[in-house]
C-alpha cells in the first residue's frame, strides 16, 4: 500500500502542476460561465427585439423584401396576409412587367424574392423565386399562409362569413402533459453529462497511457521498478489520474452549480420550457461519480497496458487504437440509446449492462427517470466485476511490458510472462 501511495502522490502532484490541467480547467470553467450568462444576454436582446419589432410594425422596416405577383382572381390580399405572418420580410405587390428586373436584382440580393401566382386547372399555382436554396422566403411558411387564405376565400364564396371562415380555419389549442418523471431539462442535462463523462474517461485514460509510455521511453521505468512492483506502479498511476479527473470534474460541476444559482434567472424559459436541475438529485450525483470512477478504471487499466507495450512515444497511438475504437463504439452505443427512445428496448438494455457502454448511458437514464434501482445495482455490479477482471489482466500485461524493449510482443505472450514477473 505504501508503494501505491508513493506513486499516487508523485503522479497526482506532477499532473496538477502541468499547464494542460490548469489551462483545460480554466477554459471549461470559462465556457460554463458564458453559458450561465447566456440567459441574461438573451433576455436583454429579447427586450430590445420587442421594442425594435414594434418600431418595425410601424415603419415596415424589414430586413428582406418579397414581391407578390398575382395573375389570378384568387388570393386577394395575399401580400398583406404574408406580411402579418412573417416579421422579417416585407411583402409588396409586384408587376409581371418587371419580372425580368426582379430576377436580375435577385442575382445580387439574397434578401429579395418573388412569389408568382398563376392559374392552372382553375386553381392558383404558386412559383417562388429566390437567388438560391439558402436564401429567400421559406416556401413552407409561404404556402401555409396562402393555403389558409385560399381556403378562407372558398368558404366565404360558399356562404360563410369572413369571421366564420377564419374561426373554422383557426388552429386548435392544445397542451402536452407528461405523466413520467423525465423533463426536457433532465434529458438535455443527461446528454451533457454523457459527453462530459466520455471526454473525461477518454482524456484521463489517455493521460495514463502517455505517462507510462514516457517513463518507459526515457528509461525512468527501470528506476521505478527497483523500488516498487510494476503492478503497484500501475495502480498508483491509475488512481492518481482518476483522482485528478474526479477533482477537476467535481470542481467544474460545483462551479457550474454556483453559476446556475447566481446568473441564471429563475423565470428563464428556453423555447418555452423552464430550466431546472431538480432531476440532478443526490442519489443521481453519487451514481454519476460511481460510474465515472468505475468507467475510468476500466479504460485506464487497458490504456496503461497499451502505453507500457511500446518502446517509443511514436507508437503510443497505434498501440491504443483498439482501446480507442472500443471507447468510441461504446460511447455511441450509449449515446444513440439515449436519444433513440425513453423506453428500454433490446439495444438500450444491452447498453445498460454492457460494462464498456454503461458509464455512458446509465447516468443519463437516471436523469430521465427511466431506470429502476435494481437495474442500477445490477449494472454497477457487472461494471465493478469487469473492472477487477480487466485490472488483473492489465496488471499482468503491464508487469511484463515494462521489461520489454524493441519489438512489441503479442498480448497473449505478455499475459503469460506477467504471471511470473510480478
Structure in a nutshell:
This protein is 67% helix and 8% strand. By secondary structure, the chain is an alpha/beta fold.
Helix and strand arrangement:
Layout: H1 2-16, H2 19-59, E1 64-70, H3 78-85, E2 89-93, H4 99-106, E3 112-120, E4 123-129, H5 139-157, H6 162-169, H7 184-217, H8 220-227, H9 230-263, E5 269-270, E6 273-274, H10 282-308, H11 316-340, H12 346-353, H13 362-367, H14 373-401, H15 411-421
Radius of gyration: 31 Å
| Poorly predicted runs | 48-60
Largest sheet: 4 strands, mixed
What is the total number of structural domains?
2
Helix count?
Answer: 15
Order of helices and strands: HHEHEHEEHHHHHEEHHHHHH
Terminal-residue CA separation? 15 Å
How would the global form be characterised?
elongated
Strand element count: 6
Question: Which oligomeric form is depicted?
Answer: single chain
Backbone structural class: alpha/beta
**Percent in strands:** 5-15%
Q: Biggest sheet: strands side by side, in what order?
A: 2-1-3-4
- What is the averaged pLDDT score? 78
Overview features:
422 residues, single chain, 67% helix, 2 domains, 6 strands
Task: Describe the 3D structure.
This protein has 422 residues and is an alpha/beta fold. It has 2 domains: 2-42 and 182-421, no CATH class; 65-168, D-Maltodextrin-Binding Protein, domain 2 (3-Layer(aba) Sandwich). The chain is 67% helix and 8% strand. The chain is built from 15 helices and 6 strands. The protein has helices at 2-16, 19-59, 78-85, 99-106, 139-157, 162-169, 184-217, 220-227, 230-263, 282-308, 316-340, 346-353, 362-367, 373-401, 411-421, and strands at 64-70, 89-93, 112-120, 123-129, 269-270, 273-274. The strands form 2 sheets. A 4-stranded mixed β-sheet has the order 2-1-3-4, sandwiched between helices. α2 (19-59) packs parallel to α9. The longest helix is centred in the N-terminal third of the chain and has 41 residues, at 19-59. The relative contact order is 0.10.
Amino acid at each position: 500500500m505504501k508503494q501505491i501511495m508513493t506513486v499516487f502522490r508523485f503522479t497526482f502532484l506532477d499532473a496538477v502542476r502541468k499547464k494542460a490541467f490548469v489551462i483545460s480547467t480554466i477554459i471549461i470553467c470559462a465556457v460554463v460561465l458564458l453559458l450561465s450568462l447566456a440567459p441574461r444576454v438573451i433576455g436583454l436582446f429579447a427586450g430590445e427585439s420587442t421594442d425594435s419589432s414594434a418600431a418595425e410594425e410601424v415603419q415596415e422596416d424589414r430586413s428582406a423584401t418579397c414581391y407578390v405577383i398575382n395573375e389570378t382572381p384568387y388570393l386577394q390580399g395575399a401580400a398583406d396576409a404574408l406580411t402579418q405572418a412573417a416579421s422579417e420580410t416585407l411583402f409588396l405587390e409586384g408587376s409581371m412587367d418587371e419580372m425580368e428586373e426582379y430576377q436580375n436584382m435577385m442575382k445580387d440580393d439574397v434578401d429579395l424574392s418573388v412569389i408568382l401566382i398563376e392559374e392552372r386547372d382553375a386553381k392558383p399555382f404558386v412559383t417562388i423565386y429566390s437567388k438560391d436554396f439558402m436564401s429567400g422566403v421559406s416556401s413552407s411558411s409561404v404556402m401555409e399562409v396562402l393555403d389558409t387564405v385560399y381556403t378562407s376565400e372558398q368558404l366565404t364564396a360558399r356562404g360563410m362569413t369572413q369571421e366564420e371562415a377564419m374561426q373554422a380555419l383557426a388552429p386548435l389549442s392544445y397542451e402536452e402533459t407528461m405523466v413520467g418523471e423525465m423533463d426536457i431539462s433532465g434529458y438535455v442535462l443527461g446528454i451533457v453529462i454523457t459527453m462530459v463523462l466520455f471526454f473525461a474517461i477518454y482524456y484521463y485514460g489517455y493521460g495514463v497511457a502517455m505517462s507510462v509510455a514516457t517513463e518507459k521511453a526515457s528509461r525512468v521505468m527501470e528506476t521505478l521498478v527497483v523500488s516498487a512492483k510494476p503492478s503497484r506502479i500501475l495502480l498508483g498511476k491509475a488512481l492518481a489520474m482518476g483522482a485528478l479527473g474526479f477533482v477537476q470534474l467535481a470542481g467544474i460541476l460545483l462551479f457550474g452549480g454556483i453559476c446556475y444559482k447566481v446568473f441564471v434567472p429563475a423565470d428563464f424559459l428556453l423555447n418555452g420550457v423552464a430550466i431546472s436541475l431538480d432531476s440532478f438529485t443526490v442519489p443521481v450525483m453519487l451514481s454519476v461519480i460511481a460510474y465515472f470512477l468505475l468507467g475510468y478504471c476500466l479504460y485506464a487499466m487497458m490504456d496503461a497496458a497499451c502505453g507500457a507495450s511500446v518502446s517509443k512515444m511514436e507508437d503510443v497511438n497505434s498501440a491504443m487504437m483498439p482501446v480507442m475504437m472500443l471507447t468510441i463504439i461504446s460511447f455511441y452505443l450509449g449515446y444513440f440509446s439515449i436519444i433513440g427512445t425513453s423506453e428500454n428496448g433490446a439495444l438500450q438494455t444491452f447498453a445498460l449492462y454492457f460494462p464498456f457502454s454503461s458509464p455512458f448511458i446509465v447516468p443519463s437514464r437516471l436523469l430521465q427517470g427511466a431506470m429502476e434501482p435494481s437495474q442500477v445495482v445490477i449494472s454497477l455490479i457487472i461494471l465493478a466485476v469487469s473492472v477487477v477482471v480487466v485490472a488483473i489482466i492489465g496488471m499482468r500485461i503491464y508487469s511484463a511490458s515494462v521489461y520489454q524493449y524493441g519489438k512489441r510482443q503479442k498480448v497473449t505472450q505478455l499475459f503469460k510472462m506477467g504471471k511470473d514477473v510480478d
